[in-house]
Amino acid sequence: MVELARALSNPGIERFRAYLAELRAGAAAPPPEALLTDPRYSTELSAEVRVERKLFASRWGAGEYLWNRLQPLPQEEIEANRGLWAWLSLYYFDQVCPRRSDGSRKPGQDYRHVPDFSFRTRYRHLLYGPYAVYRRHRGYAILVLSGPLHQEQRIYREITSRTDLIASRGVLEALNALYLDRSGGIPKRGAQAAIPRPGTVLRFVRVLQQLDVTYDVYGMSGDEILELLPPEFDEWRGTGGSPLLGAVAPRPAIGSERG
Amino acid sequence: MADAFFWKFRRMQPGEMNIDPIESEFFSTEALGSLADALVREAIQNSLDARSLGEPVRVRIAFSPPGAWLQGERAARYFAGLWRHLAADRSGLARLPSPEEPVGFLVVEDYGTRGLQGDPRQSEDEEIGPGGARNDFYYFWRNVGRSRKQWSELGRWGLGKTVFPAASRINSFFALTVRRDDGRRLLMGQSVLRIHKLDGARYYPYGYFGQFQDDFALPVEEAGVLGAFCHDFAIKRGDEPGLSVVIPYPDPDLKPEAILPSVVRHYFLPILAGDLVVEIAHDRRTEVLDARSVLRLAESTGWAEGPRLQSLIELARWGLDLPEARYVRLPEPPPEAAPRWAGDASVDAALAPLRAAFNDGRRVAVRVPVWVKPADGEGALASFEVFLERDDALSGAEEHFVRDGITVAGVRSGLQGGVRAIVCVRDRRLSALLGDSENPAHTEWQERSPRFKERYRHGPFTLRYVKSAPREIVRSLTRPAQGRDFHLLRHLFSLEVPTEETVATKDKRKEERIGVDGTAEAGQVETVAKDRFFQLQKLRGGFRLTGAPGAEAVPRFVEVVAAYEVRRGNPFSLYEPFDFEMDRPPIDVQTRGAQAVRRERNRVVVRIDDPGFQVTMKGFDPRRDVRVKVLRLEEAP
Questions:
Q1: pTM of the full predicted structure?
Q2: Which domain of life does the protein's organism represent (chain B) (predicted)?
């Protein structure tokens, strides 16, 4: 059902935070959805934004959907209205904090659901993060925004925790060329290994930090970055095609249009 | 009237398949924001398809003022036989109005069109020969998801009309048509429910308003009835050809303030081109959206999206008014190959003259030729136009793909931010190709659509070529010029050019420094660090540690530690064996007057045998800087 999005007011946000605290304490209460429409706890937005409770196949899908839906709003409202993002988190709570097999929910830190837009945690919000990355990079973000809504992939965390990395289109192009499994639009197996192995995402970040001393890597294209990488990345390049193929399935975007 | 004209649903036969209508779901796509958008898009599209040659289409959307709402007997006569079906179990209507509630209504009329021509008695498909007339009446009233619309027409799924019942709280509508060919005036109605039960009988979802021969609905033609109908629903049509649709109990989301921007958003191009005029009557006034007024209206109404629409309209108007000679025409692609943007240097060359203008913020127009090659026919060279401008006020990119007047709302090329683009497809052959790939809501171009696949040679490539045009053109326009620009930052970083006089007075001692001024042989190395007992010199891909001349207290053992430098943090603690390992290739350690007694990870322990020792380590990545530290070891390791 299509509904008009709203913004949680300060009392609404406090109620939402209290609910998150209850979950962390082991409660199994259902989400306080009444806050979504109760004028005491939520307010109208400056423009009509219609959303529906669709199931997102990936964080990229959520980013794209929200980017489309939030178009009527002024950018400054999107970037600063934490009540809006708290409302959306509550609205999509079953996806950003799904019920586990034992009936419990693990919401994690508050900033995953109520953004504070600080430098360190702005991308940690489970909806604002995908939205912001999608808005900046669209189809090129397909790899960084892979995986289910409630789980941050290692690649997402590594890239978004460094502003120079997430700001660089070339970095995303190079990441896609190295680590994107084009048949499924997901990371290649082993690319996100927690223990550093040759050429994995963790190594990519480390080597880029080293190259940053001698090159303007964040101003380079994906091809130029790939040319700089040492041989340990060779086995990850082996899929052929242009690293500029920014996106592939799950839906036609940039890469698939290049054939 | 009550005896002769009424609503009727057909009783279903035992064993007949149960299928509920689902067509309204085709218009609930993400790209269509609202019911108002769906109604505007589909209604006007149908009108443009029914256009009489040579005339602009005029569409009038009128909201009934509360004072004109029908009540009592005046209302009841148009709903005879309908209410019990609406109220039936499982009719699919959740919030049914009361029969006593006054009947508000919304009227959508078109003029400059041909009306629903064709035999009203036709009940099944007939073969139409070349040049034969199509039975619009039959396809409008008696078909869903089936259409005989032809190659370049906007609609082709036969689903657009289903937005009319979807717009009504009772899922029902009336339509009065005046036909251009024979002047007949015909009135019918349709209600779309679900399979429902009344008094134990099962009824078919589609019911009709009209006259009946058994279960077969025929239109009402009696002049008196039609006159009363026009009067009751404030229909302006006299004998002028076209179609007037009446939507009773319109959905509350259908408001003038939703309809007006929707018309601009979806049909700005045919309005500006003079092909379409839309009138919206509400609250005893009429807003006219035509080529002259549309910009003024966007400026004055205070819509949230008003400024964006103004900019869009201005760009579209500029492009439409531009003489053909001022378009940059891209080179004609080879007819035998699939069209591609990648690596086409001739495109860059053709666009080069626009680069400065575009980057200075001026608008540009590009005509892009492309071949349309039907699978079973001759290929034809078509073209489309792309209008572009930079707009720093945009937070992202703004793209509008317009096929034959209708905006295909869900298509994006991945254009960079800060740019507004209109892709305008007016060529009938290319429009046909794109239309074949469209979904029922006309919001996407889908290359995997069954209607599209196999119908054209290089069809998907052609589709992608059109879709990616704004992105690729902008990419070419913003690509840096080949080679180095030695003047790029000269206003920021400048050095005085030395004169003969300044050179003559330079400190002679400096000139003796190796490799600094270029006045002496640079040699292979550059000294980068000194201590009391060693010098560290930089080599390509490595470094050299040598004993300092005259050094005292030279240690017996030292540990040389290396790591790739980083901009932030401690490079030694960030070292990982995948960077390099001192005991593995490609790292090569050579010694003279010293001995490498241990090599592991990023460390080498060196025993110094001669104060003039030399340790050379090479094989590091020359693209990364190496940081080195030398530690005295007190004891033998």
A1: 0.53
A2: Bacteria
